[in-house]
Amino acid sequence: MKIIEPHVHMIARTVQDYERMARMHTVAICEPAFWAGYDRTSPQAFHDYFTHISEFEPTRAAQYLIDHYCWICINPKEAEDVAFSREVISFMPEFLKKPNVLGIGEIGLNKNTRNEMIIFEEQVELALKLDQLIWIHTPHLQDKLKGTKMMLDYLAGHGGVDPARVCFDHTEEHTLPMLHEKGFWCAMTVYPVTKNSPERVIDLVEKFGLDRMIVDASGDWGPSDPATLHDTLFQMRLRGHSDKSVEQLFYNNPCRFLGQSGKFKPQPMDA
Ligand SMILES: [Zn+2]
Q: What is the dotted CATH code of the domain comprising 3-259?
């Protein structure tokens, strides 16, 4: 069985994680642009970061026969300064033309501020103008429900947004139902200590079905582990789900969503 990891920040990980993922049959991974563990001091630092994730990480991944794709954006954690953010947005189109850049993400909200929302909306407009997929970061903990509703209201009321081309990530029990109902893709991030566990993710899959559902492990600079994706796959098998269903959730679904970019090479097995 082949696995796709739709959300991992390899800039924060060692080569051992590529090696482990390769051993666990991960064939393709996606690196959304986000905070890198520190605030950048200039827009140019984002140019360097986008170059790193679109040029250097693919070469590290290729040594383990893993296809590396990325998303680019100004992330919500650094989007409070509107003028700074607009400078970053100004050079995003040149990166969006690259063959391994899948779209704009992970955009979203962090503290649900007015400025964060302005920059979120401007990046949605850019995605629509350039026909790009959108990957959304929903806020953590106490800000999650409010922030998710703010973005959902905006996108659902927009008129020009096709929910099938938008994925909300870090969804949980209290945010997934309203997004799924409106036709958006929902990704669930599994962490070793906080937030979603393998059990909770498979509970949600059993309740809402496999359609438009994605699982990811979010390896980043904090306590996290790419293997939590495979722990979740194991949990699904333990509960007796068919190999076909497991393959749909961990391989075919990400292929379907990401394939809409026209750049993602892996094809669904059931195509
Ligand atoms: Zn992330």
A: 3.20.20.140
